Target: Cd(2+)-exporting ATPase
Amino acid sequence: AAPIALVAGMSRSSRNGIVVKNGTTIEKLATAKSFSFDKTGTITEGALYIDQLSYTSSYTEKTFLQLVASAEQESGHVIARSIVREAKEKGVALLPVKDLEEVTGQGVVCFIEGNEVKVGKSTFVGKKDVHRLTNEVAVFVAVNGVMIGHVTMKDQVRQEAKETMQMLKAGGVESIHLLTGDKQEVADSIADQVGIDVVHADCLPQDKIAYIQEIPAPLRPTVMVGDGVNDAPALSVADIGIAMGAHGSTAASESADIVILKDDLAKVAQARDIAKRTMVVAK
Ligand code: ADP
Ligand code: MG
Model:
């Protein structure tokens, strides 16, 4: 297409809070055949709320929350940020941490007062998952290898998610995929609620990359939409990477071809719409 048309498309996108870094992205987005969405923070809201704290008798609500929030204080994950926010609201003082390590898409491990503290998904902490509702995420906590409790957090599906999937399909998108580090039954239920066709659960960041790379030719160009540090590599390997920039990580925004500045998933469908209309005008 004529560069001038692409520039017009970029400026139209930008007026709508959609930053398109390169004109050729508009051409690809207009003909995209498939979309993959990350779950936590992308299909669901970025702000989580603690639902329940379960801990062994050597802790109180306050000391348990203090331990978890302290371990999470440096993490940019939406789960971590929500835990730290709630701890601060409750007046819990954070403890200093040593040798902190974040394992992307899994959790954090560090030392607090000489003890090894591990916080993250069940497989990372080495414990069995708990039964939970599909609008909840669970975070497990172990001290020196012994499970001491878990936190469940409410994670609502975005109200605009279903409509966004409908708009994409109405605009000619053939298949929509859900990629998540969370477990299968939670992912299946969310996909069902919002109208996503294909689910790939229990993904590590490298599984998300492999999945995107293996999307077959008839489903290309393919788009990946995500918000987290763990989504950044998948955003780079997709034909088009879209970052939810309002609450998402810097790494995601830097790896993406398009950054959505408003915390609104419907902007993804709007971006596609603008791209299509730009190409019609350009012809
Ligand atoms: P999704 O792919 O659905 O966005 P992630 O891959 O970001 O989810 O995370 C998958 C799971 O890993 C989360 O549900 C959570 O249990 C765990 N997890 C990842 N990072 C953290 C962290 N910093 N603190 C606690 N749990 C984490
Ligand atoms: Mg996410």
Notes: Residues 49-154 form a domain with the Calcium-transporting ATPase, cytoplasmic domain N fold (CATH 3.40.1110.10). The chain has twelve helices and 13 strands. The pocket of adenosine-5'-diphosphate (ligand 1) is lined by residues 38-41, 72, 75, 77, 79-80, 105-108, 119-121, 137, 139, 180-182, 228, 230 (CB under 6 Å).
